[in-house]
Amino acid sequence: MHAFLIIGDSEQIITNRFSMPKIPFVLQKIDDVRELKKILKFKTNQKTAIVINNIDSATEEALNAFLKILEEPGENISFILTAKNLENVIPTVISRCEVITSHKSQVTSHKNNTQIQKFLNSKTTERIAIVEKIKEREEIIKFVEDLIFVERKKGDYKYMNNYLNILKNLKLNGNIGLQVLNLVVRMNSDVK
To answer: What is the DSSP letter of 95?
Structure first.
């Protein structure tokens, strides 16, 4: 893997896990991507990591331009991206990275993991019954976060846009019932 996305407190993970030389780089707007392309024209003989902090605050235009570089960074180049929240990173960036989570809230408990697996392996009516039992906003937010974590761990990004949109809407006080319905219906209709 040549691209890593660290969610949460990244400093210790970067120090402990990546022993290669690191070059810090700020990527916020499209001009930064152009500058990065210029830098990457220079070849390096040793493995080097470009560290881009707060990728979740870059403009969507910049992130879309960055995707090609992220896919094909060049010989001996790796990217270490950091973000405070996974839901603020566009799914196309997430899908090209190994995601490393530093905070414990992203680690699902055995009970939650069992519930998520049951949800994923169920038919539509059973999925609705599972999520209808969740009444509190914080509980459904945790359920969707755990769903994202489990699917990402499996490398399944088919419904990631849906999950991230629902999570965003829930955090913006979107109607819980409507978001739960969207979660189930969109999984069964392949609406992206």
So the answer is: T
